[in-house]
Amino acid sequence: MDFEIFKKNIRNVPNFPKEGIQFKDVTTLFKDAKILSLLSDAIYEEYKDKGITKVVGIESRGFIMGPILATRLNVGFVPIRKPGKLPCDVYEETYEKEYGFDAVQIHKDALSENDVVVLHDDLLATGGTMLAACRLMKHFNVKKIYVNFLIELEDLKARELFDENIEILSLIKYPI
Ligand code: AMP
After folding, report:
1. Which of 17, 91, 98, 115 fits a 20 to 30 Å CA distance from 75?
2. What is the atom index within ligand 1 of the atom nearest the CA of 21?
3. Quick check: is 61 catalytic?
4. Are residues 79 and 63 in contact, defined by beta-carbon separation less than 8 angstroms?
5. What is the pLDDT of residues 6-32, one digit of tens each?
6. Which of 10, 11, 16, 123 to mutate to test the pocket of ligand 1 (most atoms within 8 A of CB)?
7. Which pLDDT belongs to residue 98?
8. How do residues 115-139 score in pLDDT, each as one tens digit?
9. What is the pTM of this model?
10. What are the two backbone dihedrals, phi and then psi, of residue 8, each rounded to the nearest 5 degrees?
11. 50-174 topology per CATH
12. Where are the chain's structural domains?
């Protein structure tokens, strides 16, 4: 598949939400029915033979393609959310952001040691969010972790920060 078609449909918004950031707007990728369908096919092709048992999506842009992939794979979807959103007992991991700290949570009964999971988010920048999500997986001792992004900002080299047992795949790459 020619992944350039996806790049053509991602809107780059300079200086959003603040000066110096090249914001990758994926709403333009999702709004076209044909492109959305191609995107669904592309991600499904990558994971269809990997024995995935759960797709885990990160709030909030991981909640768009995450459930689409889960439906294609015929497996369940599990959300990782910001603090205070999940109603039952949770595990939490904090991570450092440019200004201060943030945290992600997952329900304690969301996964089991029999699961093979693919963690999904829209974009890999510094990696802080996804690394915290991977630490959450340790509570469940899952069999295998795959990590998926639609977009990777390669020059930030965040993929080097992940454990070597974790398979990382991003469909679309930009320098920054
Ligand atoms: P990070 O934890 O630094 O890898 O940041 C990843 C999260 O921040 C993702 O959930 C993205 O939605 C968002 N994000 C970071 N940088 C950008 C960017 N340049 N364009 C769009 N979203 C971004």
Report:
1. 91
2. 19
3. yes
4. yes
5. 999 999 999 999 999 999 999 999 999
6. 123
7. 78
8. 999 999 999 999 999 999 999 999 9
9. 0.97
10. -60, -25
11. Rossmann fold (3.40.50)
12. 50-174
